[in-house]
């Protein structure tokens, strides 16, 4: 198992390096710069700023300097948030996004898993069609439609929940953003689990167990659910990273000071270092969660450890 884990870990490192390289050069290729504004700066001041942030160096030199800094754990200063390092901004926004992401993930697993099991127990029934049509709706409707509808219903019409904002330890502020983040994942998990559970229940040894009188709940939760979880776990790798780092749309709509809002503002302002820092963090989280998924795959199906 250790050799399997090390192979997966070492395979992820080149991917992270390629991601850093592509993000660096794509940001530099985009039109505009971090100090462009409606009112042009005097040439002396602009030259001084470019020198301060090493933007006057050749592109290859900027790249090497940035890679060296990252290897030493320094993501550089923010170009737009004066006096702040990128690591400080990420440290400020990441806990908020993590809180939303963890709650949304737990809600998606509980509700989506329950819907998937209910639908798989009676495939083709009225309940199955109803639940899967609702799941299809959840997959099809994007966050930027769902979030305003939730605000309209629960904040404006019913007046039972706040429309946005983020107050410390006020859990009511989390309800609507968490639901908006979780709804698409509920739909995906429900559909994936239903399909894989139906396939698992059709396996010969489970049909034999059912014929011998094994109760349905034991058949599902003791025998069928373990192999049926493999597609769901595979989906949860990138999905978890996306939830943990915050949804750009949801955080913008609800006015939440998470990592997603920093990313949007940094992209609009051409804040190179902040965009690269968030992209690097997001890529590292995707690789980390995919690594965890690989370990879970190896635990659930020992045959995969040899690949």
From TrEMBL:
Compartments, record wording: Cell membrane
One Gene Ontology term, aspect cellular component: plasma membrane
PROSITE patterns: ABC_TM1
InterPro entries (alphabetical): BPD_transp_1_N, MetI-like, MetI-like_sf
Pfam families according to UniProt: BPD_transp_1, BPD_transp_1_N
Family assignment from sequence similarity: Belongs to the binding-protein-dependent transport system permease family.
Protein name: ABC transporter permease subunit
Species the sequence originates in: Solimonas terrae
């Amino acid at each position: 198992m250790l050799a399997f884990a090390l192979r997966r870990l070492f395979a992820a490192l080149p991917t992270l390096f390629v991601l850093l390289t592509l993000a660096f050069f794509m940001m530099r290729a985009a039109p505009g710069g971090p100090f462009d504004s409606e009112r042009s700066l005097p040439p002396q001041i602009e030259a001084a700023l470019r020198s301060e942030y090493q933007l006057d160096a050749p592109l290859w030199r900027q790249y090497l300097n940035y890679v060296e800094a990252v290897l030493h754990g320094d993501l550089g200063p923010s170009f737009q948030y004066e006096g702040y390092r990128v690591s400080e901004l990420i440290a400020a926004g990441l806990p908020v996004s993590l809180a939303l992401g963890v709650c949304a993930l737990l809600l998606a697993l509980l509700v989506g898993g329950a819907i998937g099991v209910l639908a798989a127990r009676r495939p083709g029934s009225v309940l199955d069609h109803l639940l899967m049509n609702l799941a299809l709706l959840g997959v099809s409707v994007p966050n930027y439609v769902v979030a305003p509808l939730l605000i309209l219903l629960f904040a404006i019409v019913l007046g039972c929940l706040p429309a946005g904002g983020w107050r410390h330890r006020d859990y009511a502020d989390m309800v609507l953003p968490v639901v908006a983040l979780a709804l698409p994942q509920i739909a995906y998990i429900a559909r994936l689990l239903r399909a894989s559970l139906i396939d698992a229940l059709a396996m010969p040894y489970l049909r034999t167990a059912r014929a011998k009188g094994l109760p349905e709940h034991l058949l599902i939760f003791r025998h069928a659910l373990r192999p049926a979880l493999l597609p769901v776990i595979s989906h949860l790798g990138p999905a978890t990273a996306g939830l943990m780092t915050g949804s750009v749309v949801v955080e913008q709509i609800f006015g939440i000071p998470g990592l997603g809002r920093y990313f949007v503002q940094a992209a609009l302002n051409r804040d190179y270092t902040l965009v690269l820092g968030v992209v690097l963090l997001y890529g590292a989280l995707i690789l980390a969660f995919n690594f965890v998924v690989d370990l879970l795959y190896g635990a659930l199906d020992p045959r995969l450890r040899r690949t």
